[in-house]
Write a structure and sequence with these properties.
Low-confidence stretches: none
Helix content: 40-55%
Distance between the termini: 36 Å
Mean pLDDT: 85
Strand order of the largest sheet: 1-2
Order of helices and strands: HEHEH
Structural class: mainly alpha
Strand content: 5-15%
Number of strands: 2
Radius of gyration: 18 Å
Largest sheet: 2 strands, parallel
Length: 107
């Protein structure tokens, strides 16, 4: 990663300006790790003769356009995004707690 001095502006709050390439480099290891975890789940199910119809991106990091783009590029049209990724996790937890029989299987 190319090192450049941070652009700090005077004012009440200090700001750090990074270009998009720097942001992509910062997040690349995490996005790669997420991709590998998804791939392991797909491979694990394929070994059992099963396949995924969809991959849903949920949780806070699912709001990242970098993650969305990367996952969609690697796994294609089976990737779906919820309108409220954080709420999906909360709702799923509540459903599991109140009606665990609705969950077919936990991966």
């Amino acid at each position: 990663m190319e090192t450049k001095p941070a652009n700090f502006k005077d004012g009440f709050k200090k700001t750090l300006t990074l270009d998009s390439n720097a942001i992509e480099e910062i997040y690349a290891p995490t996005i790669n790790a997420v991709e590998e975890l998804v791939q392991k789940q797909i491979d694990s199910h394929a070994a059992k003769g099963k396949k995924f119809d969809y991959i849903f991106l949920v949780g806070g990091f699912a709001e990242s356009k970098l993650l969305q783009t990367s996952i969609e590029k690697r796994f294609g049209s089976i990737v779906k995004q919820t309108k409220e990724p954080i709420r999906s996790v909360i709702s799923g937890g509540v459903i599991l707690g109140r009606k665990p029989e609705l969950i077919r299987y936990d991966i």
